Every structure is written in structure tokens, then in C-alpha cells.
Amino acid sequence: MTITNKSLQELLPLSFTNTPAVSIRKENKIWIATGMLIHYLESFTDSLVVTEENEKPIGVIGGREIIENVIKNPTSDFFDNTTVEQITDPNLIILSGTATLGELLDKWKQTRRAFSIIPNSLGGYSAISGRKLLEIGINCVTDLTVSELPKKDIVYFKQNSTLKEIMALMLEKNTRKLILEGTHSFISDRLIIQCIAQEFDFFRNVKFLERRIEELFKLEEAKKISKDVNLSEISKIMYTSPHPYVIYQEQVITPWDVCMALQSERIEFLG
């Protein structure tokens, strides 16, 4: 029996519902959502839950929704006059308290978003993100190593790439992070959103999609490892990293990869 048959509550006994979902009302403007996402992308919540007046969840918004729509409308009008409801992804996964890890991962594979919510004892909702599942990985016993995870091509960008080219490449390759050629530095949707909000005031006074990345950003550094560590060890490395993105040889590993690896029959859980 794989651990996918165990309930999330069994696998996360101490922290199952301890991460409150962060919500935003559907009538709020995009600049408000963007400011909030700066703090939550790559965290244990990672996305915002969109709610109606009665606090009923109706969808989710994250970095991808912002990036997609900035390319379509790279002006302050998008941030100041578009409402959250207009770009909300309605495919929010709401799990039951008895949901298994397997049920969760199957739903994530359908939506390609490592985020869901679950009712909690306070009458609200708690968030389950890809980063949250690293806690399960940490408590696993397995000989499954990083080199055995499915290989993904590293998506590179050039020093003279424009912001528009970067965002288009993220959407084309369905990735939130790109590596600068010849380095371990990367750019993420969070960095782009932060720059738009804090450095360029939501495009209110400047347009910069044609600007080169080298003029705009201080990039983050990916964690490079030289040892072929097992799933538990890579989970620990990512869990303690502010930006969980690891390079091993010519391979990049993200929390998503760890989550999908939890389906292996070679994993036992130290519950």
C-alpha cells in the first residue's frame, strides 16, 4: 500500500489545518491582489482564495493569472480598474476532511496548480500547498533519490531578454521560474509581481515590458546540490529555503516534483 491511500490528516497530524487560507473579495481591484501575492507566492498558502460577500469561496488567483493578463494589458488600467473576479480561476479545489493524499494529487494534476483548501474547525478554510506537502516528504523513509525523479529541461533566459519575453516563456513552458544562462540565478513570477508593484507603481507612471531584465531585477539564487540525496533530504532542503528551487547536475527540482514523487511505492511514512 502506498502512502497515497492515507488521509492528509494522518500524514499531517500536527499541522493539517494550521495554515489559514488567505482570501480576497471578488470585487477588489487587481492592484490589491498583486500586493498580497508578493507576500504569499512560494509560501505555505501560495495563492489567494477569491470569495463572495458571504465569504463563500468561488475561485483562486495566483501569479499565473497576473502574468497572463499583464501581457494582454500592460497598463495601469489593468491593475486599477480590473476586478479580481474578472481574472479568477474558478477551479478551486475544496477537499473534505477525510481526503487522501492520492485524491489531492490527482486533482492537482488536473488543475496544474499545487493549491487547495480544506474546512477547518473555526468555520473557515485552511490551505494545503505544494510547500506544505514537503512536511510529508520530510517524514518519509525511502531510497528514492533526486536523480530518479522525472527529468525536466531547465528553461533558460538571456541577460538581454525583455520582461515581455520572460513572461511569455513562463506561460509557454508552464513554469514559474526561469534560470539565467550560465548561472544559478533565477527569476520568478513573485519577483516580477514585486517589481511591478513596488518599483513601478503598477505601471501608473511608466511602461517597462520592453525593458531588459538586467535593468530591472536582482535575481534569486537557486540552491545547488552536488550529492544525490533521497526524497526526505531534498524535502528538508526545500522546506527551510525561502525560495524552494534546487539544481542537481542539469536538473531542477521544485516542490511539485516532490509532491508527485510521493506516489511512489518505495516510500514508507514515519507517522
What is this structure's SSE topology?
Blueprint: H1 8-11, E1 23-25, H2 30-40, E2 48-51, E3 57-61, H3 63-72, H4 76-81, H5 84-87, H6 101-111, E4 115-119, E5 125-129, H7 130-138, E6 140-142, E7 156-157, H8 163-173, E8 177-180, E9 185-188, H9 189-199, E10 220-221, E11 223-225, H10 231-239, E12 246-248, E13 251-253, H11 255-261, E14 267-269
Parallel strand pairs: 1-2, 7-8, 11-12
Antiparallel strand pairs: 2-3, 4-5, 6-14, 8-9, 9-10, 12-13
Helix pairs in contact: 2-9, 3-8, 3-9, 7-10, 7-11
Outline the structure in words.
34% of the residues lie in helices and 18% in strands. A hairpin with a 5-residue loop joins strand 4 (115-119) and strand 5 (125-129). It starts with 7 loop residues before the first helix and ends with a strand. The model has no long low-confidence stretch (mean pLDDT 92). With 271 residues, the protein is an alpha/beta fold. It is built from eleven helices and 14 strands. The strands form five sheets. It has a four-stranded mixed beta sheet with strand order 7-8-9-10. The chain has a three-stranded mixed beta sheet with strand order 1-2-3. The protein has two domains: 3-140, CBS-domain (Roll), CATH 3.10.580; 142-269, Roll (CBS-domain).
